[in-house]
Write a structure and sequence with these properties.
Blueprint lengths: L10 E5 L2 E5 L6 E4 L2 H6 L2 H9 L2 E2 L18 E5 L6 E5 L5 E4 L3 H9 L6 H10 L14
Antiparallel strand pairs: 1-2, 2-3, 3-7, 4-5, 5-6, 6-7
One zinc ion binds next to loops.
Length: 140
């Protein structure tokens, strides 16, 4: 599958037994339909989050093309409060596209990830960890 932004081939990663497609270039993530629900884990809360999705018809962001069917994806606003988080959704329902950091943002907003498990995994995978050391070490 190719990245809708860079058009480079994405790599497949496994996160909590869900296969996600990741672009090493721009840091974007593609989730097939249903995979976000699986990652969110709790169907009831996930349903609440998913039902907050609202199409943003006047978004200034450029539309992206679905990596599966090549149709223009819809901009979707997530959540009711705070600065708008915009993700892209295939109009046929193939899946969802998250720009770099947006997937973590979803978990932040949804407060579903109580142990920070998913966020830790994402940080590990994508190298967002803060305070990652140089070769200097204090211990010894
Ligand atoms: Zn990319
Ligand atoms: Zn599609």
């Amino acid at each position: 599958m190719d990245c809708p932004i860079c058009e480079n081939a994405m790599i497949t990663l496994e996160l909590e037994e869900v296969e996600i497609d990741y672009c090493t270039d721009c840091g974007g993530i593609w989730l097939d339909a249903g995979e976000l629900e699986t990652l969110l884990g709790e169907p009831e809360k996930a349903g609440g989050l998913l039902s907050s999705f609202k199409a943003d018809l006047k978004s200034a962001e450029n539309p992206r093309k679905c990596p599966i069917c090549d149709k223009k994806m819809q901009k979707i606003v997530v959540g009711q409060s705070g600065p708008a988080l915009l993700i892209d959704k295939c109009p046929r329902g193939d899946g969802l596209w998250f720009d770099k950091g947006e997937l973590q943002d979803i978990f932040d907003r949804a407060r579903l990830d109580k142990d920070n498990k998913i966020r830790e995994l994402l940080a590990d995978m994508f190298g967002h960890k803060k305070g990652h050391g140089s070769n200097k070490s204090n211990s010894g």
